[in-house]
Structures are given as structure tokens and as C-alpha cells.
């Protein structure tokens, strides 16, 4: 459970520095993880982004102060990171469905979010099916887009990219280069790391290839890794989302493995059929 304890250490760090302008890279460091992998894991375990958790917790504590102290509303707004009373009031109403003034007068029920403690329930009734494989470095060819992790932009925009490439013929072009070991279309997520743009990822739609060039497409080298390949079966995107959650909430905490921090992949069959028995895979590099 060491992996889970690292996540909790990062959460405790956020709580201890809740009134500060937190650097997500520093938070992730508490979990021994990159910014991307920490934020991804946090969202899968809690169904809430890191920024949303911080916002909820700060507004919860602000509501408590409004109810229990005589501090001025403007001072409380500044204390919890809002530059103007108007911005504070707007955010406060969105969460608590009342204004700060109404909260001070005890009107209505506030939406209070408690400090988070990660607990994992090991269900096991429907275990994830997986296989461990060793694979040397290989090349993929495809197109990439850059996405921010802030406010879940990547979660909203990546499905739009898939719709785009499925409708404009890009997938058909890519499949002509698919002559490597992995048969199918890949969704490859590359953490840019702290030395590049903080809070950004490169997302590739690609195929494995042995060819050096691909015309309009770019190439990316995937490092040699030990991979855990998880089976995903069922209609998209529900089956994929459910499996990701199971991996991080049930499999990783007891597996003895850690994420290697290199690119991870989803593998989809070329025909793209959307049926109840649709088969796809999740490839995660581990150490």
C-alpha cells in the first residue's frame, strides 16, 4: 500500500499549505510522482480534479469562518485566494448556493467538503484481466496535440480529437503505416515534465511502425519497458473509463508495481466498431 500512502502524503501537504499558492509540481513531488501522473491518479481515485478539490476545501473553510467569526468578508476573500469580493462571492454562491452575507446569517445549508482521506475498497468480484510483457523500444507515427491539465481540459478535448480523426480520414491514413507488433490505433499520453510546459501533456493518436517517415505525420520513440496490458471489453467510452478507475483504485495499491513515468497507451482495433463486446487495451509501463 506504499503507493497509496504517497498519494495521502501529497493530500496532507495540500491541506497544510491550503492558504498558499500551491505549485502542483511540489505537490506531486510529495507523492514521488510527476505532475501529470499525480493529477491523473487523484482524479481517478476521487472523481475530482486537484484544482477542484482545493477550491472546494478553501470555500468550505471560508464558510466556516463566516459562520463562526466576525472577520470581514473582504478579509476572508483575500485569505482564501480571491482578489476581489466579487470573485469570492461568485465562487461562494456556486458552491454553497448562497451569498457570503447569507452564510453569515445562517440562512440555508452550506456544502461543506471535509478533508480528504484516501481509502481503497478491494472488491475483486470483477477483477481486471491483465498480462505483463517486456517490450524493447519502438517507434510510433501519428499526430499530436498539446493539452492543459487545468480544469480537466484534457478530459474534455481529447474525445473531440478522436471524433475529428475518425471523421476526416486521418485514421485510415495512419493504419497504412501500422506494420509493428501492436495492431491497432494508439492513444499515447506523454507527460511533458517540469523542464517543459508545467501542467501540459502531449497526446498522440498514432500507430506502431517500423518505417522512418510518414509524410504529414510525426514520429515518437517509446522507451523499452515492462508493460502491464489490461483487457478492456465493452462499449466506449464507459468500459475504458471504468477500467482506468479499477486499475488505480484496486489494482495498483496491491500490485507491488509503480508507474514507470514513461508514456502510457490505449490500444483500439482498427475497425473502431462500437459494440457490447468491443475489445481494447490499456498499456501501462511499470517498475
From TrEMBL:
HTH araC/xylS-type domain: residues covered: 8-106
Keywords on record: DNA-binding, Transcription, Transcription regulation
Entry superkingdom: Bacteria
One Pfam family cited in the UniProt record for this chain: Cass2
Stretches that traverse the bilayer: none
Gene3D superfamilies in the cross-refs: Homeodomain-like (1.10.10.60), Regulatory factor, effector binding domain (3.20.80.10)
InterPro entries membership: AraC_E-bd (IPR010499), Cass2 (IPR029441), Homeodomain-like_sf (IPR009057), HTH_AraC (IPR018060), HTH_AraC-typ_CS (IPR018062), MarA-like (IPR050959), Reg_factor_effector_dom_sf (IPR011256), Tscrpt_reg_AraC-type_HTH (IPR020449)
PANTHER family, sorted: RIGHT ORIGIN-BINDING PROTEIN
Name this polypeptide is given: AraC family transcriptional regulator
UniProt organism field: Cytobacillus purgationiresistens
Amino acid at each position: 500500500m506504499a503507493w497509496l500512502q504517497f498519494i495521502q502524503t501529497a493530500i496532507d501537504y495540500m491541506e497544510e499549505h491550503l492558504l498558499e499558492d500551491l505549485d502542483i509540481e511540489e505537490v506531486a513531488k510529495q507523492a514521488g510522482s510527476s505532475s501529470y501522473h499525480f493529477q491523473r491518479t487523484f482524479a481517478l481515485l476521487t472523481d475530482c480534479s486537484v484544482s477542484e478539490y482545493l477550491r472546494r476545501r478553501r470555500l468550505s473553510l471560508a464558510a466556516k469562518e463566516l459562520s463562526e467569526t466576525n472577520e470581514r468578508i473582504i478579509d476572508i476573500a483575500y485569505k482564501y485566494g480571491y482578489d476581489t469580493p466579487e470573485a469570492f462571492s461568485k465562487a461562494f454562491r456556486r458552491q454553497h448556493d448562497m451569498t457570503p452575507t447569507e452564510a453569515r446569517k445562517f440562512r440555508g445549508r452550506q456544502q461543506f467538503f471535509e478533508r480528504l482521506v484516501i481509502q481503497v475498497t478491494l472488491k475483486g468480484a470483477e477483477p481486471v484481466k491483465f498480462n505483463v510483457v517486456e517490450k524493447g523500444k519502438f517507434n510510433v507515427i501519428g499526430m499530436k496535440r498539446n493539452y492543459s491539465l487545468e480544469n480537466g481540459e484534457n478530459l474534455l478535448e481529447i474525445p473531440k480529437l478522436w471524433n475529428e480523426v475518425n471523421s476526416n480520414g486521418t485514421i485510415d491514413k495512419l493504419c497504412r503505416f501500422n506494420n509493428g507488433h501492436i495492431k491497432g490505433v494508439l492513444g499515447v499520453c506523454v507527460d511533458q515534465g517540469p523542464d517543459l510546459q508545467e501542467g501540459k501533456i502531449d497526446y498522440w493518436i498514432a500507430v506502431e511502425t517500423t518505417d522512418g517517415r510518414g509524410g504529414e505525420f510525426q514520429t515518437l520513440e517509446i522507451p523499452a519497458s515492462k508493460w502491464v496490458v489490461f483487457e478492456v471489453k465493452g462499449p466506449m467510452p464507459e468500459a475504458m473509463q471504468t477500467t482506468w478507475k479499477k486499475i488505480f483504485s484496486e489494482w495498483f495499491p496491491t500490485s507491488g508495481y509503480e508507474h514507470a513515468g514513461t508514456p502510457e497507451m490505449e490500444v483500439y482495433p482498427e475497425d473502431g466498431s462500437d459494440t457490447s463486446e468491443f475489445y481494447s487495451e490499456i498499456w501501462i509501463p511499470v517498475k
